[in-house]
Structures are given as C-alpha cells and as structure tokens.
Amino acid sequence: MKKRMNGYLLAGLIITCTILVVALIGTFWTPYSPTAMQYGKFQAPTLAHLFGTDHFGRDIFSRVLKGTGTTLFIALLTVGIGAVVGTFIGAVTGYFGGVVDDVLMRFNDALTAFPSILLALLIISLLGPGKKYNVILALGIVFIPSFARVTRTAFASLRDTNYVTSARLMGAGNARILLVHLLPNVLRVLLPAFTIGFNNAVLAEASMSFLGIGVTPPDASLGYMLSEAQGMLKAGPWYAIFTGLTIVLLVFGVGLLGEGMQAAEKGVE
Amino acid sequence: MTEENNNLVLEVKHVSAGYKRGGFFGYGQKYKEVIHDVDFVVHYGEILGLVGESGTGKSTLAKTILGLMEPTKGEIVHYTKRPQMIFQDFHSSLNPAYSAWWSVEEPLRIFGKYDAEERERRVREMLTRVGLQEEFFASKPDELSGGQKQRVNIAAALIRRPRFIIADEPVSALDVTIQAQILKLLKQLRNELDLSYLFISHDLNVVYQLCDRVLVMKDGRIVEQGTVEEVYNNPKEEYTRNLLEASK
Asked: Quick one: which of A111, A185, A259, B81 could link to A8 by a disulfide (CB 3.0–4.6 Å)?
C-alpha cells in the first residue's frame, strides 16, 4: 500500500478530531449557558471558569465550545459550496473545453481579481447582513473560483489519458466518464485544496465577524468573539487569548491534515 | 458489400486527417494536416504492421480509424464491431483509482447486457487468459509491474470480444524479456480469439517477428506496403532501407 500514516497526518488527525469532538459536545452541552450573564465580569481563569469570564459575565469556555461549533459549521458549509460548485464548473470547463471554457474561466478570472473580502462584503450587502446563512452563501460564492481553477486543471489533464480514451471507445458517456472515471482521481487533488480552503474559510469568517458583518448575537462564532475581545485586551486578555488560540489550533490541525494527506499521496514517510 | 470484401475487417479509403490548433474564442484556428491520402485494407485474421519514425502520424491514423478524430477527406469502413485499442503508455491506460479487476469489468458494465455473475465469470476467464496471476486481480495499477499492467490492458480491450485491435506500440515501453512475453501473448490471443491487429511500431524487429504484412509510413503518407518478407528483403524505398539499416 502506498497510503501510509505519517507524522503530519497523525498530528492533524488528533488535533482536528479533538476539536470536532469539542465542537460536537459544545453543540449539545456546555458547562454554563454561553449567553447567561451572571458569573461576574472579567474573572480570570479559575477551575470553575476555565477560560475566565467576559465583560458581560459570560463563561468564556462555554462560549468557545459553542463558538467552535458555529465556526466549523460555517467553514464546512462554505467550503462545501465552493468545492461542489467549483468542481462542477471545473469539470464542465476542463473536460469539454471550447467556448464554454473560455467564457466561464474569464468570468472566473474576473471574480479572482476582486479581493475576496471585498467581494464577500458586496454579496452580503446585496443579500442583507447579519444572517448566518447569508454569510455562508457569500463566502461560498467567494470560494468557488479557486476550486474551479484547481479542478479544471485536473479534469483537463486527465481528459486525454488513455483510460478515458478506452472508456470512450467502449461507449461510455460523458456523465459516466466524468463521475466514475475522473472524479475519484480529481478528489485526490481536491482534498488538499479542501483543507486549505477550509482554513481560509475559518479565517474569512473570523474577519467578517470581526468587521461586524458576520454572525450576530446571540450566535457566537470564534471570529465574532475575537472582535468582542479586542475591546477588552487589558481588562480580560484571556478572552482574546483563548479564542485566538482555538482558531490557531483549528487552522493548524487542518493544515497538518492537508499536508499529511499530500505526503501520504506521494508515499513519503 | 461485394464478395471480395468479405474477408476484410477494415478499409481505409484515401483518408486525410489533422488537428486544429490555437485560436481565440473559437476564431482563427489553424488546421494542420498530419496524414495524407492514406489507403489500405486489413484482412481477416492478419497482423498488419505499421512502421515509421515517431511523428509521422501513426497514432493520428490510429485515432482516426477508431473514430476519435474525424477524417477530413476519405472514408473509413469497419467490417467488425467496436474495434479496441491497446496503448503504448500503459501507465495511463489503467485508471489509478481502481483495481485491475474493475478496469476489465468496466467495459462489460458499460455494455450493460450481463448480470454480475456473468460479468465475474467473463472477467475471471479473461484475466486468466492473459496470464495475470489471481493474487493481482484486486491490485491497483501502482502495485502492478509494466508487463502486468499491459496484460490487464489487453484483457480490458478484449473483454467485449472485438475482432479487430489496434495496438499502438504496445511493447516499446517494456523490457526486452517482457516484450517477448507480451508479443507471444498477442499472437496466441490472435489464434484463440480470431483477432486481426493493426500493429503500430517503430521497432522493425518486433514487426518482423509478429506481422504478416507491413505498411511503411513517412510524413503522413504510406510509402510502401507488402508482405513482411517482401519489404524486409527487397525494400523499394530509400526511406525503408534507412529504417531497416537503423534497426540492425
């Protein structure tokens, strides 16, 4: 077998799985209510309040548990939209080529030419700000071009391989060639792109919430919490530190995962 | 169909073909003709060699015959159903995502006329026939040797029982000892399964071992054709003599 476990992959799996479990727990249970404001303002971390409390007297650990879930949810859906639509566009343009390819990819270039945050801002102002699903949709659209580009290259390079030619000679239709013959091979390229995209989505959501156009209270996402925390760096530095660390850990873990998968693909130890 | 055509598997009638290149949004494409006025037949049961240096249009001719490219002039008449191709680059002939078994079964799935049990019987029979050991049936391409991959390719090409095979340099990327095994296999399969081959090669020694008749191609044209003995012992064209000289 070529696919072996390696250090990156193992570390990435451990970190990511831990965070997933934490987020899952946070969705259903938190030690305190993440929105209750009754635990005393600006308390430093103690055993009762592991990450301390914030300016409203809310338990930060509970908020981080809950917020991680929100952030993961947004990031996954965002990348999901980008990957699915992007792969579809990449398949159509890369496989069929021709005028469709020219038109769609020039449109893609135009989208890429915008700074992604600006583009997301634009889309959100069109859709109406302050709704979680609008954030997801806006970021999802922003993520389409990069996935389209990656998968287009993959589909285009695989289109003329002998096994595709053979399948065509056997009478396989385009749908079968695209879905059965090419997609599994494109997924190998897509997985690392997916992890990178996921991290960008986490950071993009954080930036959007930080700018005040992401999720709104009472929803808590890590990015929103970080924007809250910046006003109280002196009074309660633990808020920013623990929230920031969680984001870093999440991004780091998934980054390792992507690195590990690429290494496993190449068969490197 | 006239009486004399009954023993033909393929007729290539004055065929020209080429590629379109460049262009912007479909405009301004340039056409470059690669093969010019190619005219020959393949008889039932024969192995017809096609030799020539690389870049003379041998593979283009193969693609045109298989319908992967449209001829710009002339006509191609098939007297058998669904001819298949065996490729030189056997690495990219097998889908890396799937096992040897899957690749051989896939043409039957596409065909769609056999149930799972019948497919399994046919795949097992064919993989055994091409000499792949059972322990490699479930192997992915990157776990197979070059010779094994080419055996799987041959099995996949033959599983639907075509009568005519185009083999484009099927052994030139293999070690000499493996080459001999695959050539022997191709010959044996021809007899067992009533096949005819168009065997494309730049290696005149291989063609001499395997083929009944031979076509010599130069710059997209057939410059000489005849039985292997005729062409090898008494080449009419300067180009053929040079090719023969170079392969000694």
From this structure: A259
Distance CA B197, CA B10 (A): 10
Show me where the domains of chain A are located.
7-266
Structure-block tokens of residue B146: 């070059």
Question: pLDDT digits over A143-176, tens only?
Answer: 888 899 889 999 998 988 899 988 988 888 999 9
| CA nearest to B85 within chain A | A166
Chain A residues touching residue B94 (CB < 8 angstroms): 163
Distance CA B65, CA B71 (A): 9
Fold of A7-266: MetI-like fold (1.10.3720)
Query: How far apart are the CA of A102 and the nearest CA of chain B, in angstroms?
Result: 6
pTM for the model stands at 0.79
ipTM score of the complex?
0.82
CA distances from residue A212 to A127, A208, A223, B38, B197 in whole angstroms, order as listed: 15, 6, 10, 71, 70
Residue of chain A with shortest Cα separation from B94? A163
